[in-house]
């Protein structure tokens, strides 16, 4: 079951067309998932250095970075088991679409950054939930096991935004909620874990199938 707080936070569900495309691109799904976990760890470490004076943030982000790296190891182990080679992929436009609206000056920059990270974690949680029923038993079980962690990360980032803000963040959350919705419902030429609606390819017929080992 999708965590109710995540479902209430997001303004739209993942489109079925994204799920269909993910099932047709199992290697890209796992590859970009691995890259997302590694980037999430890197982001947490970057924030630790940028805001070193915030001791409680240091402790939280340290634990989060370790958990994200553990997830990276688990995804790459699954890939190796399935004969897939790890490599870098070009990132999706999803994060860029949110990040370009982050305030340039502090303290608003920190608050916006934490809100954006909360949306990224919430969307990851929602996507794991939506696609898990269509996957093979091993991968479905793994993605379902990630739901609590992604939800916990979402809540952690959002709680920090509320704690450090000097005023209520409801309006800013609502603003980024709309940006995030637009990012999910915008067409993207390349499939990625956080990409929007897949653009139809000329002359191609999409076939939906359960991913099997």
From TrEMBL:
CDD domains with a match to the protein in the record: MiaE
Pfam families in alphabetical order: MiaE
Domain of life: Bacteria
InterPro entries in UniProt: Ferritin-like, Ferritin-like_SF, tRNA-Hydrxlase_MiaE
Gene3D superfamilies on file: 1.20.1260.10
PANTHER family named among the record's database cross-references: TRNA 2-(METHYLSULFANYL)-N(6)-ISOPENTENYLADENOSINE(37) HYDROXYLASE (PTHR42637:SF1), TRNA-(MS[2]IO[6]A)-HYDROXYLASE (PTHR42637)
Protein name: tRNA-(Ms[2]io[6]A)-hydroxylase
